[in-house]
């Protein structure tokens, strides 16, 4: 039986909720504040950093008409990565994204 977290959800379910599009942003913030399980907190931080990175990239690309054509591609890629991370989190494995994994480690030690 999986160890229950402070939210009474199993860690893999809580980690998965962090990556669900739209709902995941709120869930990640809630789990970051309430959750004591380090894996869930780590996934919440990575989810927030991924969403923030996608948002910033959308803003930068959207500043010019030519680069704005790349925004849908970035959003589809972000959605695919998010769904893969959600499935992996549900399976109980942690996936470190190449650019965000190090930042996630640093932030999780400070939070």
TrEMBL record:
The chain crosses the membrane at residues 12-34, 54-87. One of its GO terms (cellular component) is membrane. It is a multi-pass membrane protein. Keywords: Membrane, Transmembrane, Transmembrane helix. Its main location: membrane. It is found in: Membrane. It comes from the Bacteria. This is Chloroplast import component protein (Tic20).
């Amino acid at each position: 039986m999986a160890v229950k977290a402070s939210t009474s959800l199993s860690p893999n379910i809580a980690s998965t909720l962090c990556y669900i599009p739209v709902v995941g942003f709120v869930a990640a913030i809630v789990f970051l504040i309430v959750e004591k399980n380090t894996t869930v907190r780590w996934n919440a931080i990575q989810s927030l950093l991924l969403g923030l990175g996608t948002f910033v990239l959308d803003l930068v690309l959207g500043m010019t008409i030519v680069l704005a054509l790349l925004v849908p591609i970035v959003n589809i890629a972000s959605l695919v990565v998010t769904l893969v991370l959600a499935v992996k989190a549900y399976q109980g494995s942690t996936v470190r994204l190449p650019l965000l994994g190090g930042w996630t480690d640093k932030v999780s030690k400070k939070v």
